[in-house]
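Please predict the structure of the following assembly.
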Amino acid sequence: MTTRSLLSSSAPDAAVGAARGINVVGYLHSETGVGEAARLLVRALRHRGYAVACTTVHSPDGSRQLDRTAGPITGTAVHDTTLVCVNASEVPAVQRELGPAFFAGRYNIGVWFWELDTFPGDEPALHAFDEIWCGSAFVQRAIAAVARVPVVNVGVPVVPPVDSASARHALGLPADRHTVLFAFDALSVIERKHPLGVVEAYRRAFGSRSARTQLVIKASRLELFPAEHAALRAAVAAVGGLLLDHYLDRTALGALFHACDTYISLHRSEGFGLTMAEAMSIGKAVVATGWSGNLDFMTPANSRLVRWTPTILDRAAGPYPAGSRWADADLDDAAAHLCDLRHRPDVAVSLGRRGAAELATTHGLAAVGDRIASRLAAVHRHRQHGSHRWA
Amino acid sequence: MSVSAAATLPRLRVALFGAGARGLQCLGALAGNPRLEVVGFLDNDRRKWGTSVAGLPVHEPTGDRCRDVDAILLASIHAKEILAQLTRLGVADRVVLSPPHLQRRLAGQSPSTPTDPAEPPDVQRDRLLADVPAASRALAARLDQDPPPPQPGSAASARAVACTICGNNYFAYATVLARSFLRQHPGSRFFICLVDRRRDDLPYPDDPRIVVIEAAALGVPEFDRQAFKYDVLEFNTAVKPWFLEALFRAHGVERLLYLDPDILVLDSLAPLYEALAQTPLLLTPHLLSPYRDDHHPREIDILRAGTFNLGFLGLAAHPQTWELLSWWQARLTDGCTRQVEHGYFVDQKWMDLAPSFFPAHTVVRDPGCNAAYWNLHERSIGFADDMFTANGRPLRFFHFSGIDVHDLESVSKHQTRWTLPADGPLRELFELYRVLLVTHGHLAWRRTPYDYGRFDNGRSIPDAVRVLYRDSGLAAVHLRPFAVGANSLYSWLCAPWAPGPRITNLAAALRARQPGGTPRGADDDLTLLLDAQSLAERHALPDEMVTPAPVPTSTGAARSPSSRWTGPSMVGPESGATVALVAPAIQRACAHAAHQGVCTEDVRATYWLGDADGANPIRLAGATEVWAPSTAAVARLVQTVHTPVICLPHPVGQSVASSRSRAAFGIGDDHRLLVVAVDPLTHACHDLAATVQLFSAARARVGTRATLVLTTLDDARLAPSVHATIAPLTTDHLRWLPLALDDLLQLLRLADGYVSLHSGVGADPWLAEALAFGRPAIVTHVGGTTDVATPNNSFLVPTRSIVDTRPDEADAVVAIADVLGDPVTATARGARGRRDLQASHSLEAIAALVGTRLAVAASPRLPTRLETTCP
């Protein structure tokens, strides 16, 4: 405590946060986006000087549980504020697993991801927390519209992936080709991620037999969806592309991102868009649908935003009900951006540089840590001067 | 109402405020009303106190004096000030605005009265029958003999039936029709769908072949809502496909003729049943030949109402018929209105599509079928061998649409072409029908009130309420619209509308539906009241639905919850767009949400308009939540505010009263016109000099004629700094043009593009309006404009860096040049902007957000807090 106070004495604002600790509950061992987001929050909190008491809960999706980067697991709530980093639908399971006493008397904050511009108002977990955090203004707006409690966009911390020459070599990518990459997890709803749109945009940009360009699509858990798997495999093959549908560890993934020249995502909707952010963070030019959570860090100045038209889901897709609003990227516009970046490498480089710099400014560990500290300080002031329940 | 009835009611004591010419005029207008007692005048002119005018005393308007009367009629040109004065005295509830308003208030205290003249039905009947020529009476007596009993072995004819639909007030028509049908087809049955409740005290026919089925028993989905949203004609036609289906399904019918109740069957309909054996659908066109004059109806009127007259319809049990009935049911669920201007005319207009949709059909061209006022130009009615004829062929059935038994000469209230001839077969036909109707009790039946025309407390339902219910979303909330009492539609309609003075939710809702009727901040109480009174007159609304009963100050329990919700309080700058444009628009969305019936008093919202000072916690104190115009504004607030912060932009697309042309703004039609709206809210984030220079550079690059107009609502505050900025730059293609709100919106509508090269405004309400008008925008991609200006609909200009958020100059010149030099792309983006804003910023969309917030506040809390025991 003394050390921290001394360390932070030059930054009065930091002292508020450094003097305090926080409990974090999440799928801290899980190799999924939600697990990774929780670990990134832990890193941002520690970066900002918080004592973090970690508790991991059982991940419901059967994913690999080998990630230990969150550090030691405390397993109990020792601080007066708790972040629960699981999505709304999983809250009852966490409540059952940890029991009410874990949360009693504490200020409980839900950290949620969501991917649509409307959030179901009848979600019981809306009543479970004192406050909800999310990763983008897009999600803030959706959840805040139906919540009784404050909904705060703290952002998602982005840590640049690390390159590895040996891992890159193992991937076997041709070094002399302009490489276009898209990575997604099939469990995150294939229709939303829209990989076939990427293949088609690539085809329109470079044709089916380009010897100077290379499409690479990295997909996780695609084997769970055999029909889509076959369709994507055929489509990728038809443009001479490479479908990486096997498991890659973090190092290999980092190398893959470093190996590409352009990253593309023609998603129909994103809560945040971590892969785009990661590509930007290492200076890659990114082409992406100009809609939803990725607009928190992507602008016309630092990336290529693809025009789109709104579409309404005519049937449910995964957890998203029919009638939800999505964006359909204009594939010709996407293809034009891919072409332009291929033929004007200087433009791609300057776009990437600006993207990396801006992303670090808005979504680096320090930036998100600052936002969290500022919000927690406000919460702390409020709890000292008034009830923390908002009637 | 008779004088004796009036005498039993208490007299209303009235004072006239204003002892001048207008007071005397009002006194004259009230003279002779036995229910009023004018006790004297009130006047603010002390010289008149103690004098008398027209024999009545003039007093000082003290509180006691005012409380001593039941009503104070404003009879002065200073009505607004007097209203304020009487409000201060606490007697505003006694104010009436005009003699008609007073009359309505009197009517509101009366028991409901029949609209008929005082003459009793039997006296009327005798008088009407006395005028009938003897020949017609003899003919009627012969035709009106009871139908003969069915012949043995007529099971087949019992499955070929006829039917009609009516309410109790039309039941004499249905009886006459049924008997005329059974006389021709004694072995058949006649079904009457009663769109009303069956009453024990009414003389329904006792012939077992006449079967009366209540509409409520037909299984029409959401019957109450349907009965409420449609007026009597609409609803009587809307149930038709359900009724016909029920006859096929539940009564073993194989061939069916539907006939309107005001039809008289005069000869056998056997040819029609035979035709039904060939094709399962028979239709009669209104016209078989063109009109040759310009009387009403004209051919265009027939086109509007529908080619076929649905007073007749023939159907046979057949798969095509199930398909037709199912399609018709679906269409009539919402589309059975009389909004001719929108292409609707009850059930009838839809049937124009039937010949295309349902190939097995016959268009009946027999002139003896469905003869009526609309086709008399081509059908000569004759009488030979004791039979009526049409063009020499048997007149099988005549349709007396629009007949008035008291005025046969007019033939029908829907036409101007004919006057009934003094004698001849047509005259005899009409006289005959009148005798039949009157003999079967029409004059008594017609007084029976329509059960679905009244709320459960007996108050009649004005048509405007039905339309409001149908079109405003109230139907989604009030499933039992006829109910009265707490939380009912009726109580909501009559409850005081907030934040206005004493007008009801209904009056406010109707007012909001008028062009330019949006409540504005500038509306004073008197304007609201006067508007409400003129609405009352236009829609024939009773007073209690316009001016709510005064609320006892001791308790608020009598008020409906909605009446207390006043929308958000506004926090922000004192002038500019935020006050003139945004605040009323937000209130409009709130009123719209409240009109939908989603209401609660639990929301104490504060709308944060400002850019700089809004987060001051003192100014937000007491709010249960804060609303802000953009995600950027939300992001700024949400870090520190301890209530929910909701992004709630203002609804765009309000009607624009100005119709000024470009020339009237001094701008040539051959110039590309770009507009910058300057506002105190955003002024600090706008480098106007840079904008002008960038525009000049782009203009030079493209070489087109172009004008940049800088405009504002707030000349007084902005002119000095703007002038200082742009004076050195003024050229012939730059204008500074302060405008009023409507003109400013009109200028945006006329522009070729909107320019907002800001460096991080929290919101730009003008940008949203320009996009909604379909104007492409040139916008720095930063701050609060990123919500609406996207690559799809705008020309986005990147910032110089993430720290220096001024627009990149080179990109800005390119963007402006694109709009000036590439009208095709600019127009396409503009069109997309209009669509985008219509989807996201319409009144309905924003009101839905407000409604969601109200619903969240009103919803119960779930016991799902993490520290509660697990379920």
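Chain A has 14 helices and 14 strands. Chain A touches chain B through 62 residues (CB under 8 Å).
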